[in-house]
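hey can u check if this looks right to u? its 80 residues, i copy pasted from the old doc so theres a chance i mangled smth
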Amino acid sequence: MAFSDSFFNKVEKKTNVGKDTILRLAEKLQKNDLKCENTLREVISELSKITGKPVSKEKEDKIIKAVKDDKIPKDLDKMI
């Protein structure tokens, strides 16, 4: 799936996370198993640090469960 620059601009405006950082994290996820809990925790932790928004253990667990249960929206553009 290819994303337009307008998509990255929307994400950066809402999160202050640049396109290069997003692409680096996406590459990390592509190279690893999305169902791997350790990989997901690393990415969540990294995103938390980058955005300056803390993620509680409870919320982290919910995110991981949603990913493992395949309950993540397929249309990312609608999420932002």
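The two ends are 16 Å apart (CA to CA).
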